[in-house]
Each structure stands twice: as structure tokens, then as C-alpha cells.
Write a structure and sequence with these properties.
mainly alpha; Arc Repressor Mutant, subunit A; Tetracycline Repressor, domain 2; 80% helix; globular
Length: 196
């Protein structure tokens, strides 16, 4: 392993550790009652290391690798599918991996977002950024002629995914998230078919 690869791996491990310890504290004490100082102490890192990895406390909850993973899956989908089916496939594949490997952290993260007004407000901005990434990834090879139409479809898909995740949190994880996500996209597929 080269020095560069080692540094990249070490940085990723440090980032995961900080996030893991922060989520544990947030779940136990509440988001608003947990300070950066407590996170730093729990993770055994310096303030500088914390802020190099997460510019704000909100970023510990909101920043993750999930969007990048789903976007990567989206780029591997067939251009022959409809936009809704491409996004559905990307979420289904990407989410299966996240759900399997990181179920508890995924649940805690989304529960915190649902219950914390400051995090919910930041989520809207993140959704707009994700929407633009999806539009950019799809624009080159979709049959949608209007950029506006593509943005509307992507926004609807992201809203469907967010609704599935919120429902999962609201019923305390009793219903499997992949099932809720599939149901949400099935609803969109029916609407898309009715409009065609």
C-alpha cells in the first residue's frame, strides 16, 4: 500500500470513527444536548481533526457516502429504462448495500434528521444538491427533452425516497426500508404510466 493510499484509508477510518461516536452520543443524549467537545473526547481526536472532517456538527449527521453510492449505481443503469426506473434501480441496489452494512447507523441518522428542526432545515439544501447531481448524471442519455421535466421527475423520485425513509423512522423500523422504498417507487411508476 502506498503512502497516499494509507493516508486516504486512515482519513476514512477517522471520519467513520468520529461519525460513529457522534451518532452514539446523539442517540443517548439528543442532538442538541451533545457538544463537539463530547464527540471529540469520545472519538479520541483533536478539535482540528474533527473540523477537518466535519465543518459543522450538522455535517456529522448529514454527510455520508450514501448519495455518492446511489449516484454511482445510477450511472450503471441502462439508458433504455425510464428515468423513474433508473433512479428506482439505483436506490434499490445502493440501499440494499447500505441497509445490510450500516442498518443501525442509517436508522439513527434518519431518526435524528426527522426529530431535529436544525437538521431538517439543512436536509432541504442537501436534497437540492443531490437533485442537481442526479439531473447532471441523467441529462446526457435520457429521452426527456425539457431540462425542467427532468428536474421535476428527479425531484419526485427523491421525494418518494425521502417519504419512504421518513415512514420507516416513524414506524420505528418495523417495516423494512427496502419494502417501503419499493412501494414508493411503484406508486411513482403508476403515476408515470397514467401520464404517458
Amino acid at each position: 500500500m502506498s503512502n497516499s493510499e494509507w493516508r486516504t484509508e486512515k482519513k476514512a477510518a477517522t471520519r467513520r470513527l468520529i461519525r460513529e461516536r457522534a451518532l452514539e452520543l446523539f442517540e443517548r443524549q439528543g442532538y442538541d444536548n451533545t457538544t463537539v467537545e463530547e464527540i471529540v473526547a469520545s472519538a479520541g481526536v483533536s478539535h482540528m481533526t474533527f473540523f477537518r472532517n466535519f465543518p459543522t456538527k450538522e455535517d456529522v449527521v448529514l454527510s455520508d457516502e450514501y448519495d455518492a453510492l446511489i449516484l454511482e449505481q445510477l450511472q450503471q443503469t441502462s439508458p433504455d429504462l425510464s428515468v423513474v426506473e433508473r433512479i428506482r434501480s439505483a436506490f434499490k441496489t445502493g440501499l440494499a448495500e447500505m441497509y445490510e452494512l450500516d442498518h443501525d447507523a442509517l436508522f439513527i441518522q434518519n431518526k435524528l434528521i426527522a426529530e431535529t428542526p436544525a437538521l431538517r432545515a439543512c436536509l432541504w439544501e442537501d436534497q437540492l444538491i443531490a437533485q442537481q447531481f442526479f439531473v447532471d448524471a441523467l441529462r446526457k442519455d435520457v429521452s426527456v427533452t425539457q431540462a425542467y421535466e427532468l428536474r421535476v421527475i428527479v425531484a419526485a423520485c427523491l421525494a418518494a425516497a425521502a417519504t419512504a425513509i421518513l415512514t420507516w423512522v416513524e414506524d420505528n423500523g418495523k417495516t423494512q426500508l427496502p419494502t417501503l422504498l419499493d412501494d414508493a417507487f411503484e406508486t411513482l411508476t403508476h403515476i408515470e404510466g397514467d401520464l404517458a
